[in-house]
Structure formats: structure tokens, C-alpha cells
Amino acid sequence: MNHDWLMGLLGGGLIGTSAAIFLLVNGKIMGASGLIGGLVDKSGMSNWQERAAWLVGLFAVPAIMTLIWGVKPTNITSNLAVIVAAGLFVGVGTRIANGCTSGHGICGISRLSLRGIVATVFYILAGGLTVVIFKHVLGVI
Amino acid sequence: MRNLAALIAGGLFGAGLLISGMTNTLKVQGWLDVFGQWDPTLAFVMGGGIIPMAIAWAFTKNRTPLLGGEFPARSKPEADKKLIVGSVLFGIGWGLAGLCPGPSIAALSFGGIGGITFVAAMLVGMLFAPKVRALLD
């Protein structure tokens, strides 16, 4: 039917390789929320250039790829209240938990970090429950 | 050199997110939606990401980073209140929008007003996180 799983595996491999480069070359854990959040709350200003360069790559490469090969649909909801609430929850939650899908999920689980595994279990459970409630019960998303 | 490596890592990360379909919110929500049309893609993305990183972690033993310094120490294996509360809050937002921090930046150039609004709200959330964190101490 489709090769989404293969693209997932390939893309995942690129994600893991990028995190491996950041770890082996720069000696840092490539966690998106930490790299961004450290610039926002100023806790990571000592290496702001490294963070900014990483952000430029993260923003620019998909932008260039979509310019060349066409835009991939994001299917982001048009319900602005849901988007704002979601963004606030993601911003606050990832910083309190000190990590998100990349930091806890990819970098943490791959070193069998208990914190990474616990975090991943809880955000997946909360995410799954949220989709069930807001999609199937309330019909909001 | 550090900045160049960071630029390359960020770029590869963005390419991987785009190729894997993680900038498509329906794929993320489809994976979380076990009672709907379940989409297994995200499990392959996680698996594909964990394998190179597991090799990288194994390689760090008795070595130092290429550009100097130390490899990050293991955080204390404490699943404290902040880790769990924060992860639950993050999960709620992740489920609501189907976006997490990395893909939200990767999709910023083509995610329209919704994508921009999400990132703006996320940055506001990150700005206020230290205050919320203090409540949990």
C-alpha cells in the first residue's frame, strides 16, 4: 500500500545520525526542547552560537527540501485555541521534564536512561489519552 | 567548528523529520490514536533513531568528544515529580496538535499560520516554564 514505515525508518536513521554527530563531535545531547529552551530562558546563553547554528539547520534544510520537492502537508489544525493550548503545554512540559521526543526519546532511551524511558512512557500515555478524549469523546481535534 | 557541526546536525535532523513524516501532524496523532486508524510509522522513526544513537553511546566509552570537553554524564536515575508532571503536560500538547519541538521548527517554513502560532505559544510556554518549575520544587 505505501512505504511510510520505510520512510520512517530512513528518516529516523537520519535523526539518530544527527544526534550521534552532535554527541560525538560537540559532546552534547541533541534535545530540541533543551536547545531551544536554553535560548528562551537564557539558561543556555554560554553556547548560544552552537544552538543558533543548529536551529538554522533545522529550519533551513526542510525549507529548502520543500522548495525543491514540494510542500508536504502538515495537517495542522485550523483551531487556533487548540494550537495555542498545545504550544503552551509543549513549551512548559518539555522544559519542566527537561526533554522531549528527541532528548528523552532518542538520546535517552538509546543509552537506557531510566529518566528517558519514564518520560517517554508518560508523554506517550498522556498523548494517547489526549487523542482519545479530544478526538473520540469530545470531537475537538 | 562547533557551530558547523551543529549546523550539519540540525540540518540532518530537519531532513530526517521531514522524510520520516513527523512534520505531518496526522501521522503523529495517528500513532497516538490506538482506537482509530492506528499508524505505526512513529515506532519505526523512534527505532531508526535509537539504533545510530545506541552505537554512538557505545563509542563514547573511554573517549572524549572530537572537539574537546566531556561527554554528558548520566543524569541521576531519578524519576522525580518534575519529570513526570512535565512529561504528562508535554504529552497533552503533543496529542492536541501532533507537534513536538523539533518538527515544529522543521515545519515552520511551510506550516502556515498554524505552525507559526504553535511555535510562538511554545516559546511563551518555555519562557514561563521556570516559574511553573519553581511551583513543583
Listing every helix as H and every strand as E from the N terminus to the C terminus, the arrangement of chain B reads: HHHHHH
- List unreliable stretches of 5+ residues of chain A: none
Tell me the overall shape of chain B: globular
Extended strand count of chain B: 0
**What percent of residues of chain B adopt helix (DSSP H or I)?**
55-70%
Task: Tell me the domain tally of chain B.
Answer: 1
From the N-terminal CA to the C-terminal CA of chain B, the straight-line distance is: 38 Å
User: Structural class of the helices, strands and pairings of chain B?
Assistant: mainly alpha
Greatest interface (CB-CB under 8 A), with counts per chain: A-B, 107 and 116 residues
- In whole angstroms, how far apart are the ends of chain A? 26 Å
Helix content of chain A: over 70%
Unreliable spans of chain B are none
Q: How many strand units of chain A?
A: 0
Number of helices of chain A: 6
**Largest sheet of chain B, if any?**
none
Global geometry of chain A: globular
The percentage of residues in β strands of chain A lies in under 5%
Class per helix and strand makeup of chain A = mainly alpha
Overall tally of structural domains of chain A: 1
Radius of gyration of chain B: 17 Å
